[in-house]
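Side project, low priority. Logging it here so it doesn't get lost.
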Amino acid sequence: MIRSRTTAMGAASALALAISLAAAGGASAQVSTATLRGTVYEGAGVETGGTVVATDVATGYVTRGRINADGGYVMAGLRPGTYRIVATSADGQTAEDTVTIVLGQVATLDLDTAPVVTGSNTDGATDLGEVVVSGRRIFEVRTSEVATNVSQQQINDLPQISRNFLNFAALAPGVRVTEGDTERTISAGGQPSLAVNVFIDGQNQKSLINDGGIAGQDDSRGNPFPQAAVQEFRVLTQNFKAEYEQASSAIITSVTRSGTNEFTGDFFITYQPSDWVEQNVFSRARGEARPRLDRMQYGLSVGGPIIEDRLHFFLTYERKDETRERSVFLNRTEFTSQFSDELGTFEAPFEQDLYFGKLSWSIDDRQRLDLSATYRTEQDIRDFGGGPTSFDRAQAINVEYRSLNLRHQFQGDNFLNEVSVDYLESQYNPRALNFDQTGARFVEYRDAAAGTPGFQFDYGQINATIFTAGGGTNNQDLTQEVLTFRDDLTFSDIDFMGTHTLKMGVKYSMQSLYVYKQFNRNPFFTYDVQGRSEVNGTTTIPTQVTLNLPVDPVDAENNVFGAYIQDDWQVTDKLEINLGLRWDYEDNAVNNDWRTPDVVRRLLTAIDGVAGFDFPSYLDINDYISDGDRDAFTGAWQPRIGFSYDVFGDEQTVIFGGAGRYYDRIAFNFAFDERFKPYQLNKTIYFSPAGGTYGGRTDTVAWNPIYATAEGLDTLLAGTVGRGEVFLIQDDAPPPMTDQFNFGIRQKFGDWQTSLTFSWAKTKNEFAWYRANIDPTTNSVPAAVRPSSLIDPSTGRPFQFNDGVFVSNHDRERDYQAIFLTADKPFTVASGWGFNLAYTYTEASQNGSRDQGTGNFDFDYPWTSYSPEFNSPGAERHRLIMSGTVALPYDFRLSTLVTLGSGLPFTRNNVGNGAKPDWFSAYPEKKDFIIPDAWAFRQVDLRVTKEIELPNGDFVELTFDAINVLDFKNFSSFNQTYRTSNTGLAPLNPTFGNPTAQFLPTRSFQVGLRYRW
């Protein structure tokens, strides 16, 4: 689809490419790189000059640094990987070591040029995990960030079915990954998924329109990125530094694989037949057949040198095929003969293709250039069957994603700079498979006056919908298109009351947000399934039709600016202080260029003029009327501070902490309603044999076959009144904001790294829709101020809007307190095992709307201030994640992932005496596992891998995954009716708390094969 700025974006991309090739460039701070620092000694003294050279073992790329007067050195912007480090003093003495650095790490490596034999043992050296130096692992302990690194070994070895690398974000404390039937969500910090952000090679993946937090993840069974292209990733759950943006709960930053000096590749295939997937317990109880779910995934990757030590390539492709079946059946079997041709079992396939390619060029020892591209396309056929909905009604949920990322790095004598240009387009495009066919529902009408002789027909008295057929009613196209320019500059040689590494950066992003919603744009006819003579005497002539008028698409342009400065200050050899400040600005985040339509202004004036009614005192309606110059929010100043103190100076015991402010953004799908809803006019026409008064209405139309055509229906609709809805955004609407604080301690025990962190967060400015024309004492819209009761002075007719006038409220708040306990022993070849543990204790609460996405409404309370504080629905009190890998004899490996949770809260309805529900106050029944009566959610996953070396030196890996191997029944919803009635104190409901739905996955198995060379 061509957008208004496509040409401009293309020109800007070309210009940016030229600039980035000509200008100094550098690494994107720690978003996709790492830092190595330390001191070079000569015996008891320090070297006062010289050089440090880091050579990437895999690619031969060289990075050079210098030894300062105090013996210190800092090498920023290193790509995660294994490096040979050589320090050369001014008089020619050398020291050499080999280390492995992980993403986002600030690792410390001290070297000694004195010719002394240390006798160190290198048996434990490995390229897995964080840093390995001469047999001892150097953990990152001197950091104020609360972060968890996930290695390629964990991504490759830990059990999973879907090949979605983000599944393993759950290894971080405070993070929850939830698998649903149609999507997978990641949430953290007691906040919903839209508060998370992901960076891939420094490129921002934020979803700007939809839910989900991550572009392309909302309402998708697919994977956001090919797993084979991911080298490793890092999850930051608290106190992330000033270079990170547009997230208030957690940041996930990943780095992609590159080609090396060796030509390598692999091919994989995994398969899961339906018989290997345990049936849902409720489906089995209903006597249903096991539903079909065949899953096959396959792909390949290849990489290697184009010019050894200089230019490398990497390519990967992954495919996912899932075939489900959906049964179309009638609940009222006496009507089977009428719909027999449309009953039966139909396939519901899901298909996804993922492509990634990358070129890496070491221009010289000072310059790097990376160019990568990603393409993703998927289609999911669904929304039919499971009852009396025909296959013709199916929707195709289409997702298409493409990105380009160009990064150029320049290493100066005492600085590092990077220019990056990236482009991202993500399209969510659900479409009815048969939009050219009108929709139809066949209903049974009830007698409108059962005590009166004969059958009394009324259009509103529908007893049941027997069958729904014909084409679907909705099409959507939601596309975000983003072109971003970024420059990051790092100075690593500043001495003032200690040593400073100073980072600063600026960003400019051009965003096009295209939304085209065709809701109810396909005529939807209603038929009397019984063909009663009192209705219209036939099953082929409709009783009514509904259709919405078309609304033009919106193509909003938003310019985003960001700037930050970060000072990592080593005050002493024990104390480091991290000081940062970030500022972000969007010029059209909440319809800043939107002018409130005149008809809406007239409606508000009419409501305000109704005798005896005043808008509630807690809102000023004038704050919601825009003249097209709504002020953009300029207050997104985000100070961030952290510290770490190495108690004994040996990197064994470190106290750390920090505090910071983090702004997120308001997804455009929320603000879009202000532009869309007033014009989304719904029209309903009622048909009768002769027109006029019939079936309880006075406006019926005599049926004419021409109304079955688009042309005839358009003519009829032109004279029919439709109704829209009024939505108004607050003029000074602020984006969501979270203040975080943490304090903790890290302790090394040999190969183990442990940490204990106390975390606190306060979130403000979350948004929801409330009604403005309301009486707060009754929480209802008085009849006198309903738009249909008021006359538009420009037309002399009632206003064509539904009853509620919705205004945005930005007062929802959250409180979050947590304790994180982690223990990490990385897997090494020498030890043959690794283990990770992450425990989270959480107390999380909120007020306001119970909805947790971009479309938040509240009909239970007139305003946020009227709502109580209650438990956040997405936070468990206790959550424990354990994972590990152990090498077995005969080249077998066994890996496990154990997930335990105390259960999510649910609501108690009918608490008695007519009171409101007791929101999210009840918890599921607990079961035993390791700890008695502790867990409502229990899942144990296993993977067995057998590696076979072939005579030519290639390898074959055979894998077997057993997911939820113990077949624990984990329930996702429960009976919420606490008492049999809400009148007085009625008896307790004996089925309260009984489960009504089950979490995925059920027990399932999968086999796989991987060939690598």
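Brief comment: DSSP finds seven helices and 57 strands in the chain.
Revisit when time allows.
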